[in-house]
């Protein structure tokens, strides 16, 4: 039998009401779809079982993690073709009504039964346990947050060195044009981002900086080395803390930089002149966000600055309908939540901050993610050996899909500079607020 791919393509086109934009290559050697198009390879019939058992993104993700689905050729090309089907179609009411009608269509039910016969009627085996989230306790309690953070970050410092490069910065870089239009390297772009944060916070020798979610210590090291500050970095990841402490010792900065394994809710040694929170607030959760903002406000001295660097999603007409992406929730950021920019700024203001500047770095994150994917793809076998094949596949899909989401304005990332403005109203910022740009 060599007709699996044509049968799958025919069913997909009927559901979509348009030609299939990608080519399908099935385990039986059959192919279907436009010649020369990016190809989705179905390596094993279990992939169908996973999709039928868990329709939607989660079933596809499980098949991808297990290695039963793969891409022949350009991953970005395939995702770009599928993106309108996954994103736009899922939000189109006519498309949803069409799918509902098709489910009632006797011919479609026959086709689904045929797919069941191809994939097998039994539930598919679970993906490797280490790739899936573990859920214990109430969301966004300290214990549950520790579990979520360690699922994502404690996968091996060697793995992150391979993906992130020498900077060990896991947030979007700042891609300033180089001399004569030269594109900077990832390392140069991350250095530029760290320096931009320090300039926005107006760091000066002897001032105290708190880095909430300090990762592998790159910002506190840069701030201590280049700006002479006394810095505290906190993380929930023991692996990150061990790595950061080693870097601090090697640079001879132990007298000015402290790395703690600590929850942001437990920091009580303020006041600080400046606080940076870069790529951390996505883990806080909607029900805890005002508590987070108020806690940071209480740790700042009067006139102190907060730099909140956070991924944002587009707002919805009905915000109560927001749901975390199944793939991200299950395999990447357990309990992570994105909020629209206005909600984040509003919570900061409600906590007492004066929001003074907002800068979008959306395109910068797309460039950063593509650089990380290049690093991963260039040493994929080693990445799989350092973690597991499934985890390496998760990161490849997650980062490539995220790059497209930033490029297509599905999500963004913003740096919000906020001030604990004193009663006198003197914010400490000049009339030309963006003095960090120079010139």
UniProtKB/TrEMBL annotation:
Location of the Polyketide synthase-like methyltransferase domain: 159-422
Transmembrane segment boundaries: none
Keyword line: Lipid metabolism, Methyltransferase, S-adenosyl-L-methionine, Transferase
SMART domains: PKS_MT
Region entry Disordered, spans: 119-141
Keyword S-adenosyl-L-methionine (UniProt): yes
Similarity annotation: Belongs to the CFA/CMAS family.
Protein name: Cyclopropane-fatty-acyl-phospholipid synthase
């Amino acid at each position: 039998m060599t007709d699996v791919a044509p049968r799958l393509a025919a069913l997909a086109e009927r559901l979509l009401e348009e030609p299939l934009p990608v080519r399908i290559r099935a385990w039986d050697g059959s192919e279907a779809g436009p010649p020369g198009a990016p190809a989705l390879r179905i390596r094993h019939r279990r992939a169908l079982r996973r999709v039928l058992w868990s329709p939607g993104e989660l079933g596809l993700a499980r098949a991808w993690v297990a290695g039963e689905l793969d891409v022949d050729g350009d991953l970005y090309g395939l995702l770009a073709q599928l993106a309108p089907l996954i994103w736009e179609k899922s939000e189109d009411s006519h498309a949803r009504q069409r799918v509902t009608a098709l489910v009632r269509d006797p011919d479609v039910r026959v086709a689904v039964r045929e797919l069941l016969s191809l994939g097998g009627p039994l539930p598919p085996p679970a993906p490797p346990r280490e790739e899936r989230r573990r859920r214990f306790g109430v969301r966004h309690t300290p214990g549950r947050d520790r579990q979520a953070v360690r699922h994502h970050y404690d996968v091996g410092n060697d793995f992150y060195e391979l993906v992130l490069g020498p900077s060990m910065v896991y947030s979007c870089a700042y891609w300033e044009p180089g001399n004569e239009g030269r594109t900077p390297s990832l390392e140069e772009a991350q250095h530029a981002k760290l320096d931009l944060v320090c300039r926005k916070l107006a760091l000066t020798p002897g001032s105290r900086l708190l880095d909430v979610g300090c990762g592998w210590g790159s910002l506190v090291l840069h701030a201590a080395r280049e700006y002479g500050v006394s810095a505290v970095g906190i993380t929930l990841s023991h692996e990150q803390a061990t790595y950061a402490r080693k870097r601090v010792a090697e640079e001879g900065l132990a007298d000015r930089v402290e790395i703690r394994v600590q929850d942001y809710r437990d920091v009580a040694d303020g006041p600080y002149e400046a606080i940076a929170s870069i790529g951390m607030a996505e883990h806080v959760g909607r029900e805890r966000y005002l508590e987070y903002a108020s806690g940071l406000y209480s740790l700042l001295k009067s006139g102190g600055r907060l730099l909140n660097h956070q991924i944002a999603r587009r707002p919805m007409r009905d915000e109560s309908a927001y749901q975390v992406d199944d793939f991200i929730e299950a395999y990447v950021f357990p309990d992570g939540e994105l909020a629209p920019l206005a909600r984040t700024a509003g919570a900061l203001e409600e906590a007492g901050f004066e929001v003074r500047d907002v800068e979008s770095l959306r395109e910068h994150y797309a460039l950063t993610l593509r650089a990380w994917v290049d690093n991963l793809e260039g040493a994929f076998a080693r990445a799989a050996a350092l973690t597991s094949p499934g985890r390496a596949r998760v990161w490849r899909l997650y980062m490539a899909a995220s790059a497209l989401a930033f490029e297509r304005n599905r999500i963004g990332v913003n740096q919000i500079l906020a001030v604990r403005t004193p009663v006198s109203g003197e914010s400490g910022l000049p009339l030309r607020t963006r003095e960090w740009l120079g010139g």
